[in-house]
Amino acid sequence: MPRIVIVDDESIFRKGLRKMIADLDPDWEVVGEARDGYEALQLAQEIHPDALLTDIRMPRMDGIQLQQMMRERFPQVLCVVISGFDDFVYVQQSMRQGAIDYMMKPIEREELAKVLSMLKEKIHLQQSIPVNKSHREEYQILQHVSEHLVTGLLRGSVNEADLELLKTVGIHFQEPYFTCMVIKLDKNSIGSERYNHADPSLFQLYIQQLVQEVLSRRTNGFCFIMSETKVVALLNIPDQEKAMLTVREIGETIRRQITSLSNMTVTIGIGQAAEGVRLISNAYNEAEIALLHRLILGGDRVLVYSDMVQVDSFNNGEAMAVSWDRLEQAINEGKQEGVLCAAEVFINELCTHAGAPEAVHQQLCKLLIYYYEIAGKLGLTKQWLGMKDMKAVLFHICSISSREELVEECSQLLVRLTECIASSTMQPEHDPIEKSIRYIELHYSKALTLKEVADNVYLNAAYFSTLFKQRTGKSFIERLTEIRILEAKRRMAQSDHKVANIAEQTGFSSIRHFNRVFKNETGMSPKEYRDQIHS
């Protein structure tokens, strides 16, 4: 019994079509209905139908996109398109995607009967010819090969069985050298609305198909989708120098064609030529590192590892100190718009002045760890990050190679933290001393007075002073000084800011006062402390 899926965003149309099929030919089994292409793909994965009746205009994933994905993932499934009279251009596109027929709305019973009869004949023919089964098996092997390439060749763990498997699907590595391309979509080039309303895998599928077409014309190469944000190409080349010039040209060709044909841009990282299969992982890692330089140089370009200038360290200058302080002030004051603006300025300055992507990621990790510590002190970690682990957050940040995406991701994190801090300070605390300590930790850089803090927890100043000493074992001034000195020590250890600037940023009225208090608290001068830490 042939199995069919109906795809249309109107439930009444799906029900009507289901009834017509049952009335016309009881041999057919309608095994599922879908509201759009996305649901149809999930059904195809689960129930493996023989045929698909799909509308063209649907939300999320339309019929054209659905057919592209079906041709790639389930080439044995027969597709018939349903369209309105004004959709003939889309019908033409569908036929090019492999649709075997089309029907116009409203559907006539006689026309549907002919289509069902034709589908049944083709399905019977498919099932009766052994070569078709072999074709399906070959397609599954090709998918399996892709997984092997990802986990084996690119990771450096290969064996002879992997290479033999490649040969069974017609992929032969006859040249002695290899290199890798990593192609990433510049999400900002298509706009968030277009990206969010489409299945991300569609963009990767389009890129993969175009890259493979270029490789087939120019060199021996195999291209596959590695993730929903990344396409990888493995190229087999004859030498290290002349062939690499060709690889650069191929990269530029791919970049230009994607822009001209699709109105979106990509950035391509290319590794150096590696000799032998077992060094492919080196070329892949170099392509990834080259791609990270998108943070510094921007997108829509080809980045070759050998061209990248490596810089060991990044000096956090005075301009960066000002940006950091503005960001911190906006967070402490609960100004979300200010946080968005300050985060963008900070990250753009960081990317502009840094010499290497590693330096950008290092500074941003320091920033996020700093606020992670503050969130922990305020008891806001779970409210801020939910079920996420900070290690996972930092790993994700370090995987981003687009300046725009970095601004977006970090801004969202910091705005969320600002919301948490603002909401926590507005909620009444059962313990006024705990609330006062939180207030001091957030506002230590100001000229805080005992009365201001007491007013914040709705207590008389004299009573608050006595209660604070009883509960903490320290006076208000002693605790405030302790917090300021701890923050000053952190800043001296993690930055190159001038001591005078650190004194001002941590709430001390003058450098002389800071030096005296710092020595009383630590037993050494600020300069001696910094020298000791750096040594």
**Helix proportion of residues, in percent?**
55-70%
- Return the structural class: alpha/beta
Write down how many β-strands occur, each being a DSSP E stretch of 2 or more residues. 11
Termini separation: 79 Å
CATH topology descriptor of the largest domain? Alpha-Beta Plaits
User: What is the 3D form?
Assistant: flat
With helices defined by DSSP (H or I, 4 residues minimum), what is the helix count?
25
Name of the level-1 CATH class of the largest domain:
Alpha Beta
Overview of this structure, please?
This protein has four domains: 3-128, Rossmann fold (3-Layer(aba) Sandwich); 177-305, Reverse transcriptase/Diguanylate cyclase domain (Alpha-Beta Plaits, 2-Layer Sandwich); 318-426; 432-534, Orthogonal Bundle (Arc Repressor Mutant, subunit A), CATH 1.10.10.60. By secondary structure, the chain is an alpha/beta fold. 62% of the residues lie in helices and 11% in strands. The chain is built from 25 helices and eleven strands.
Question: What keyword list fits this structure?
Answer:
alpha/beta, 4 domains, five-stranded parallel beta sheet, 25 helices
Task: Outline the secondary-structure elements.
Elements: E1 3-7, H1 11-24, E2 29-34, H2 37-47, E3 51-55, H3 63-73, E4 78-83, H4 88-97, E5 101-104, H5 109-128, H6 130-153, H7 160-168, E6 177-185, H8 192-196, H9 200-218, E7 220-227, E8 230-237, H10 242-262, E9 266-270, E10 274-275, H11 280-292, H12 294-297, E11 302-304, H13 318-332, H14 336-353, H15 357-377, H16 381-385, H17 390-399, H18 403-426, H19 432-443, H20 450-456, H21 461-472, H22 476-494, H23 499-505, H24 511-522, H25 526-534
